[in-house]
């Protein structure tokens, strides 16, 4: 079954480098893009484009998963995406000069405020990438939930710190223990503290709370 989608392509023009939107047809897809492209009245040479080598092994120019994910899943401006594409081109060029290969395991953190968006992304890319879905400011039994998130960059990659949301309004909680008695997963500890990784969001603790603290 054929379909079309749009990808970002960084091209070389007489005036420098530009980022173009190019429609491709599945299943032919990216391997067709190997020659000059039209840019207004000029011809330009493709340098790098958004995509995954695992899905398009026949592509004849470098593919960037970073450019693909940022162009498809964010609202970043064309200027920011152009800078990302240039950085990816530089990274790829540096890799091409190496005389050895380093196999690195990389985990991709997918962050969203919408559970449906995370589910859709996992359905599409879960078999290709090692994904860790993170849901912001909401709760879902299948995802890591966070109230705040901090990203730090280091020589070995990005480190993400999470502040987990608390389902309890401590100003209302009387620590009566009713919530922990009815929890079928035993994920409520004295305090109360919730083990959100075990919680299935069944709602029994909420129904048992007489103070509406959950």
Automatic annotation (TrEMBL):
Record InterPro entries: 4Fe4S_Fe-S-bd, 4Fe4S_Fe_S_CS
Molecular function, one GO term: iron-sulfur cluster binding
Keywords: Iron, Iron-sulfur, Metal-binding
Domain 4Fe-4S ferredoxin-type intervals: 163-193, 194-214
Entry keyword Metal-binding: yes
A Pfam cross-reference name: Fer4
Protein name according to UniProt: 4Fe-4S ferredoxin-type domain-containing protein
Protein source organism: Dissulfuribacter thermophilus
